[in-house]
């Protein structure tokens, strides 16, 4: 059972890792003791994995080994929620993640900042925003998205 959870967490970490794998395989011997413990079920087949998968699994195992018990429990909860999603919802999330990775670092930072600001709002304000968005027509939603994407860059403090 524990091995299943570890494998599930590795899969979760693979999905959440946006970094691109390097072009060099990862030998089993080069893994740390903690990584080998997490990836133990793959010991016999490790050499047959594509290099990208080895790199993703190694990074995921390193992250897992560095997590506290609380972080591991949170990761398990996220993975449970991911597994409970239907295929179309998971596909939509993957597409959004890919679109996000394709954005410039500045645009990614802007989105992260806005998301952080949203998360800092109190529950009532967040609910108001969600309700307002739900009441919008598809055309209004698209107009809002277009407006946000075409927004001019912020002006400097001296007004230029």
Number of continuous helical runs: 8
Shape: elongated
Strand tally is 0
Percent range of helical residues: 55-70%
Q: Biggest sheet, in brief?
A: none
Low-confidence stretches: 16-23
Strand-and-helix sequence, N→C? HHHHHHHH
β-sheet strand percentage = under 5%
The whole-angstrom Rg is: 20 Å
User: How is the quaternary structure best described?
Assistant: single chain
Structural domain count: 2
Spatial separation of the terminal alpha carbons: 61 Å
Overall pLDDT, averaged? 84
Structural class: mainly alpha
Q: What does this protein structure show overall?
A:
This protein has 160 residues and is mainly alpha-helical. It has 2 domains: 1-86, no CATH class; 103-153, no CATH class. The protein contains 8 helices and no strands. Helix 1 crosses helix 3 (51-66) and helix 1 crosses helix 4 (69-84). The longest helix is centred in the middle third of the chain and has 16 residues, at 51-66. The protein is elongated. The chain starts with a helix and ends in an 11-residue tail after the last helix. Mean pLDDT is 84; it is low at 16-23.
């Amino acid at each position: 059972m524990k091995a299943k959870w570890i494998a599930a967490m590795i899969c979760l970490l693979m999905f959440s890792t946006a970094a691109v794998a390097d072009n060099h395989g990862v030998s089993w011997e080069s893994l740390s003791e903690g990584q080998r413990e997490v990836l133990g079920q793959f010991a016999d087949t490790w050499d047959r994995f594509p290099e990208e998968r080895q790199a993703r699994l190694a990074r995921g195992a390193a992250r897992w080994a560095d997590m506290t018990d609380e972080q591991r429990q949170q990761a398990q909860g996220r993975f449970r929620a991911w597994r409970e999603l239907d295929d179309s919802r998971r596909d939509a999330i993957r597409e959004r993640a890919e679109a996000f990775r394709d954005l410039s670092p500045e645009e990614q930072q802007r989105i992260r900042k806005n998301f952080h600001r949203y998360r800092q709002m109190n529950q009532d304000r967040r609910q108001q925003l969600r309700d307002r968005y739900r009441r919008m027509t598809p055309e209004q939603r698209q107009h809002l998205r277009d407006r946000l994407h075409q927004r001019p860059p912020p002006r400097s403090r001296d007004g230029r």
